[in-house]
């Protein structure tokens, strides 16, 4: 039996199987908790993504609880940037959940296949996820596992669109202060906010930190705080300065570093109030204003040569990070995915404020004249 046949035989379900009323078309992916299949709805003319929990987890109360919580929380949210959950149940001893099928890869796959993405594409994807996260936060849900593998990307006439999936370890805001440290470590430590690693309670700004780590990786192909061991990764999140994105991606405006440094602040009080404010600043930093990020039809997502940038005065080199940056498992490959957001002018940043030198000079002249008049008055009175 070859490797492909062996892999196929290990799947829970096969193409053509009937399961919980759905007809299995093919497997879409597999993870630690279960497998996901493309399936045909039994009554409606549409396909769904069917997630099935592995049998080994069926008797595990914690996995069953997380699986049910994911369905319940995701089903309570109705936003175009959140993968919708339609139904859940149990069939032949297996827990299952039917979800919206997104015809496109996740961002982790894009990184594996193409390396770092074009800055304009990254900013657009981060904007989509930020809007979805802010919506979830307004409805008192914290995702807690924002990462490229949970961001699905599909093509659209106006450019690639991102949706956030997998609310398996999400929590209602009311429960956020009661999360234990062990529960906080469930998920991906590579994207975990410092407060999640110190059992100090979390709020919506923990998702913003994870989104910032995701943006860094999509821009550079590397994790910002990757270390060989779990302990070293935790220490890096708690104390290591963020490496310079501009040092890894030549040509980026230095403001990109400033934006990511704020979103990845160790102190959550120093981060942006909302994910959307972070995303808007990132859009501006890469030269795509929030209102112009999807101005023209574009090509599907895929590798291509970036358009040549217009000449500009070189910026001062960024200050190198104080700690050595260890590259993550995804190599620093600068083959980019073309900015599928249309042609972007080289300099589309807001115009600088008007010159205020005139009012300042006038004000100084008035003060000077008043001082002279006061001095003359004193001289007259004395004489």
TrEMBL record:
PROSITE patterns xref list: PROTEIN_KINASE_ATP, PROTEIN_KINASE_DOM, PROTEIN_KINASE_ST
Residues covered by region (Disordered): 289-332
Annotated GO MF terms: protein serine/threonine kinase activity
Binding site for ATP: 51
Segments of skewed composition (Pro residues): 303-321
EC id: 2.7.11.1
Protein known as: non-specific serine/threonine protein kinase
Organism of derivation: Gordonia hydrophobica
């Amino acid at each position: 039996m070859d490797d492909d046949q062996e892999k196929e035989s290990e799947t829970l379900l096969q193409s053509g199987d009937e399961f919980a009323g759905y007809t299995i078309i093919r497997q879409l992916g597999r993870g630690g908790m279960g497998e996901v299949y493309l399936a045909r709805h039994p009554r409606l003319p549409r396909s769904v993504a069917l997630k099935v929990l592995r049998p080994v987890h069926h008797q595990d109360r914690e996995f069953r609880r997380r699986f049910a919580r994911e369905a319940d929380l995701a089903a309570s949210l109705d936003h175009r940037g959140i993968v919708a959950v339609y139904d859940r149940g149990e069939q032949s001893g297996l827990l299952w959940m039917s979800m919206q099928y997104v015809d496109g890869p996740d961002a982790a796959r894009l990184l594996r296949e193409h390396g770092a993405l074009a800055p304009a594409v990254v900013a657009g994807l981060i904007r989509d996820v930020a809007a979805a996260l802010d919506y979830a936060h307004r409805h008192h849900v914290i995702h807690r596992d924002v990462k490229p593998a949970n961001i699905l990307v599909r093509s659209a006439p106006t450019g690639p669109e991102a949706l956030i999936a997998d609310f398996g370890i999400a929590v209602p805001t009311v429960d956020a202060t009661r999360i234990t440290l062990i529960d906080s470590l469930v998920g991906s430590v590579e994207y975990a906010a410092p407060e999640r690693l110190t059992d100090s309670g979390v709020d919506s700004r923990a998702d913003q930190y994870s989104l910032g780590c995701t943006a860094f990786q999509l821009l550079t192909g590397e994790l910002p705080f990757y270390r060989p061991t779990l302990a070293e990764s935790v220490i890096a999140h708690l104390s290591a300065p963020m490496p310079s994105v501009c040092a890894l991606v030549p040509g980026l405006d230095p403001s990109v570093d400033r934006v990511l440094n704020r979103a990845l602040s160790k102190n959550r009080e120093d981060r942006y109030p909302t994910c959307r404010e972070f995303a808007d600043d990132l859009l501006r930093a890469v030269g795509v204003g929030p209102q112009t990020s999807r101005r023209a039809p574009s090509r599907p997502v895929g590798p291509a040569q970036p358009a040549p940038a217009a000449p500009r005065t070189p910026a001062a080199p960024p200050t190198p990070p104080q700690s050595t940056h260890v590259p993550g498992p995804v190599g620093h490959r600068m083959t980019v995915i073309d900015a599928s957001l249309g042609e972007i002018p080289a300099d589309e940043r807001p115009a600088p404020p008007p010159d205020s030198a005139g009012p300042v000079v006038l004000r100084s002249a008035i003060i000077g004249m008043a001082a002279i008049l006061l001095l003359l008055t004193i001289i007259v009175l004395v004489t």
